[in-house]
Amino acid sequence: MRRCPHTFCEPVWRYRQQLLSPLPAIRAWLFDNGSLTRRLQHACDGEFRVEVVAQEWQRPLLNERRRLALPARRLALVRQVYLYCDDVPCVFARTIMPRQTLSGAERHLAVLGNRPLGALLFADPRMHREPLEFTRLQSGERLFAEAVQRLASPPPAIWGRRSVFYLAAKPLLVNEIFLPGIEKL
């Protein structure tokens, strides 16, 4: 485990060509550029659902602020959800939506409720997505701690990916953390 000067470490995000570690059984899930929501819905033989864990205005993590070029004290709407297949949590998603992104036609993003964000993003012809970044999370990292809250026995490490989406040139950052349940799909 990395030693950190703070209570929780920040994840280190890398592009695909920078990954050095062998990838787990979820490789196809990690590298798929399509809609994760749509892929989960198709892979899930039973019921797919979204559970909103939290949605509030807060200061994003340092790496999230840097990725979105937000000033240090700027608040953003942070939405955290679990994506379930048959009551098994498969993905933890954390979305960072700057205030300016939630203006005009995009203000509906602030009131999604249990509707999946991915379905809206990929249905919008104005959507543009930057390349995916990847990370391996482990105990001691805040994102790991938040992602494994619903797991009875968390694994030692989990994989995640993120990308910045643009709607009408307005950015939002989507972190998708893959939980062990994804390996059964």
TrEMBL record:
Q: Which GO terms describe its cellular component?
A: cytosol
Which Pfam families does this one have? Chor_lyase (PF04345)
Which residues are noted in the entry as substrate-binding? R79, L117, E176
> Which pathway?
Cofactor biosynthesis; ubiquinone biosynthesis
Describe the task this protein carries out. Answer: Removes the pyruvyl group from chorismate, with concomitant aromatization of the ring, to provide 4-hydroxybenzoate (4HB) for the ubiquinone pathway.
What keywords were assigned to this record?
Cytoplasm, Lyase, Pyruvate, Ubiquinone biosynthesis
Question: What GO biological process terms does the UniProt entry carry, in alphabetical order?
Answer: pyruvate biosynthetic process; ubiquinone biosynthetic process
Q: Where's it mainly located?
A: cytoplasm
> What is the main EC category here?
lyase
Family classification: Belongs to the UbiC family.
Q: Where in the cell is it found?
A: Cytoplasm
Catalysed reaction(s)?
chorismate = 4-hydroxybenzoate + pyruvate
Indicate what this protein is called per its UniProt record. Probable chorismate pyruvate-lyase
Q: What is its EC number?
A: 4.1.3.40
Output the lineage of the source organism.
Bacteria, Pseudomonadati, Pseudomonadota, Gammaproteobacteria, Thiohalomonadales
Q: Which GO molecular function entries does the Swiss-Prot or TrEMBL record give?
A: chorismate lyase activity
